[in-house]
Amino acid sequence: MFAYSFQYSSNDTSNSFGICIGCEVLEFKKATTLLFVFVLLGSLLQGEKVMETVGKELVEVDIYVLSISLLVSAIFIIFSNYKGLPVSSHQVIVGSLVGSGFALGSAVNFKTIFKILLSWIISPFGALLLSILT
Question: Could you state, in order of their start, the residue ranges of all structural domains in the chain?
Answer without folding.
Answer: 2-133
